[in-house]
UniProtKB/TrEMBL annotation:
Residues 234-339 form the Ig-like domain. The keyword Oxidoreductase does not apply. Gene3D superfamilies: Immunoglobulins, Ribonuclease Inhibitor. Residues 1-19 form the signal peptide. Residues 344-372 are annotated as: Disordered. Keywords: Disulfide bond, Glycoprotein, Leucine-rich repeat, Repeat, Signal. This is Immunoglobulin superfamily containing leucine rich repeat. InterPro entries: Cys-rich_flank_reg_C, Ig-like_dom, Ig-like_dom_sf, Ig-like_fold, Ig_I-set, Ig_sub, Ig_sub2, Leu-rich_rpt. It comes from the Eukaryota.
């Protein structure tokens, strides 16, 4: 009787490690890992009753249609999960989040149009991620951040038309990437991928089959061969002029800035204004087509052609004015610091740490490909308040020029 009780006790002690659902076969590998082999079983759900000690779970080539949040709750020690060649079209967020030891995840050859990307934040040990042959149309920006052990990433044979800049940054162990057979739109939004592919040591598998599907003129051309002439990063040049305003309650001068930009595609112009009392970010014009200021934007008048005017410029408007040029290839910005001083002299500009100081025609500052932004000194513009007695001669001429720039802002709309 005692031997029998001893055997029963031993079975009870070991049973959690040997638990195996009827459809599966379980075994212990030479390295001590417990394998649950459940492939090719016509399963429609993840079987219940798996041992919590299972580290390798094979569910490939079944008929699974979805994974719920608790589908894998019984196997928290999983290191390898093979789910390829199923009918999975839905994975509930959190399904993988409780598998912190997972190293290999295969969801290839399924019907996924979406994936719980947020679950990857908890999978810092992941080394292989196979999402190929699905219906994924996007990889959210930053979705792969934190996967520092990821070595192989399969995204081929999906419906990806573009990828956000920096998608594969922060993956120091990445050695292999598969992107072929996706309908990539080779606009300038994807130009970064060409540059990244040329600079990286990552092997882009079947790069010759990673082709453009659009636009028509580039269809069938490798993504890594997008012509550089089509995509030019922005350059920006800022010119400025101040002049006295007509007599009024504040009787302040008008500061006019003009941002000239170039690039392909044509850059969008944005403004950043930083004063002691406020921070203002302006995207697009604040002046309507009829010449009137849009609601809530009366203080800073931004025109579509890149001109900005600040009428009645006062001490509270002192600060840094930055023009930002943005297109699909990159961003450039150029700034000027503006201060107000009382003087009978016309407006003048004083360069700060600028090697061109004192040279004629210096009423501009620029940043572009030919200049090193780290070596550019910001300019300091002193706007002088001009008395009514001095509004003649040179002062009057400068005032007329200021009004002319404002008029141009409307005419070039």
């Amino acid at each position: 009787m005692r031997p029998l009780l001893g055997v029963l006790a031993l079975v009870a002690l070991l049973s959690p490690g040997l638990a195996c659902p009827t459809p599966c076969s379980c075994s212990t590998k030479k390295n001590g890992r417990l394998l649950a082999e459940c492939a090719y079983r016509e399963l429609r759900d993840v079987p219940r009753g798996l041992s919590p000690n299972v580290t390798i779970l094979t569910l490939s080539a079944n008929r699974l249609g979805r994974l719920g949040r608790a589908s894998l709750a019984e196997v928290p020690e999983l290191q390898s999960l093979w789910l390829g060649y199923n009918h999975i079209s839905s994975v509930e967020p959190g399904a993988f989040a409780a598998l912190p030891h997972l190293k290999n995840l295969d969801l290839s050859h399924n019907r996924l149009a979406d994936f719980p990307w947020q679950d990857l934040r908890n999978l810092s040990a992941l080394q292989i991620l196979k999402l190929s042959n699905n219906r994924l149309a996007a990889v959210p920006q930053g979705a792969l951040a934190g996967l520092r052990e990821l070595r192989s990433l399969w995204l081929n044979d999906n419906e990806l038309a573009t990828l956000a800049r920096g998608t594969f940054e922060g993956l120091p162990a990445l050695a292999q990437l598969q992107l072929f057979h996706n309908p990539f739109n080779c606009s300038c939004k994807l130009f970064w991928l060409k540059e990244w592919a040329h600079d990286t040591s990552v092997v882009l598998s079947r790069a010759g089959s990673t082709l453009c599907a659009a636009p028509a003129r580039l269809r069938g051309r490798p993504v890594t061969d997008i012509p550089g002439a089509l995509c030019v990063p922005p350059s920006a040049q800022l010119t400025y002029l101040s002049g006295p305003a007509a007599a009024g309650p504040r009787d302040g001068p008008t500061l006019t800035l003009h941002c000239s930009v170039a690039g392909s595609p044509p850059p969008e112009i944005r403004w950043q204004i930083r004063t002691a009392a406020r921070r203002v970010d302006i995207r697009g014009p604040t002046v309507a087509r009829d010449g009137g200021a849009k609601a809530g934007r009366q203080r800073f008048l931004a025109f579509k052609n890149g001109t900005m005017a600040i009428p009645d410029f006062g001490k509270e408007d002192e600060g840094t004015y930055t023009c930002v040029a943005v297109n699909d290839v990159g961003t450039r910005d150029v700034s000027v610091n503006v201060a107000l001083a009382g003087s009978a002299n016309p407006a003048e500009e004083l360069p700060r740490d600028d090697p061109q100081a004192g040279h004629p025609g210096g009423h501009s500052c620029a940043k572009g490909d030919e200049l090193d932004p780290s070596g550019m000194g910001e300019k300091l513009v002193i706007v002088y308040r001009v008395s009514s007695q001095a509004r003649s001669g040179a002062g009057a001429r400068e005032f007329r020029l200021g009004i002319l720039l404002l008029a141009l802002g409307l005419l070039l709309w």
